[in-house]
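Field log, afternoon session.

UNIT: design team B
ACTIVITY: writing a sequence onto a fixed backbone
BACKBONE:
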């Protein structure tokens, strides 16, 4: 994946994250910060598609009436 594609994925994630409730947004922000700091992947090209997929899952859960804590657990770093 090239840098332009990675940037496109990050932009899509930023756009979609605006649809999260405030609590879910805080949870997701904590999660992506943790992942980006502690990742064992080889750079943004590897993790950004996974983060976008997780965000999409979270939005679906939110649409189904679940909070991020209910869907993923109370601690976003475990």
């Amino acid at each position: 994946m090239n840098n332009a594609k990675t940037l496109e994925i990050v932009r899509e994630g930023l756009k979609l994250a605006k649809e999260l409730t405030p609590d879910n947004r805080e949870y997701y922000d904590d999660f992506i910060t943790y992942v980006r700091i502690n990742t064992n992947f080889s750079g943004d090209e590897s993790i950004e598609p996974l983060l976008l997929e997780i965000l999409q899952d979270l939005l679906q859960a939110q649409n189904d009436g679940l909070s991020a804590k209910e869907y993923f657990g109370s601690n976003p770093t475990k």
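LOG NOTE: Residues 3-72 form one domain.
NEXT ACTIVITY: expression trials, pending approval
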